Amino acid sequence: MLPRSRPGRAAEDRRPRVCGVRTHWTTVADGEFHCPDCGGDRNYQRRTGRRRLTLLGLPVLPRGEAGPVVECASCAGHFPPEVLTRPTTTRFSALLRDAVHTVALAVLAAGGTGSRTALAAAVEAVRDAGDEECTAERLTAVADALAADTGRRTGGEDGEAPLAAELHEALDPLAPHLADLGRASLLLRAAGIALADGPYTPAEREVLTTVGAALTLPREEVTDLLTAARTPS
Fold this sequence. Notes:
Blueprint: H1 9-13, E1 19-35, E2 40-55, E3 58-72, E4 78-79, H2 89-111, H3 116-128, H4 136-152, H5 156-171, H6 180-195, H7 202-214, H8 219-230
Antiparallel strand pairs: 1-2, 2-3, 3-4
Helix pairs in contact: 2-3, 2-4, 2-5, 2-6, 2-7, 3-6, 4-5, 5-7, 6-7, 6-8, 7-8
């Protein structure tokens, strides 16, 4: 008579569990986010949960709360709520477009819009950032208005508001999501506009320094980048 074999692991796994913990999830919000696992924009659900001790599959005792988590609708991955602070691809493109537009305007306002070469460089930068309808006339009108506003406000914090405040408003939301190379490239693009009609003016250098600070670049790196931009390749 053959010895009776012991049940395998697969058979053991099919046995009903006497007790366990089950989480009941509730959706409290939804939207679109950049999923780290999918690597692109996806729909999400923000969910909170309640854990309950189960006996023979039936909930019997509460075991506290779970989450909140962000659940991807595509891959079902769970992520901490902080993942929502990263902009979607669409939002990031809009932030970059607005930032380049504001930087170009600030450089033109500091150096004047009389230079056709500087104006052409600014238009090219804004179009490359996604605003394909940008024109020299439109940039000139806005930059002249910004320069006039700057001239009316002199002294102290009020004097720097038209340029510095505008730059920080456009760059502060973008800077944390740019890689080091991206931040340096944006500053170099601004420097290229300033240098299109000759060496930096004091006002242009001040604007470029503000751009570097808003991009959270170290002061020494800003100085090196502005020097490198001035050196022919």
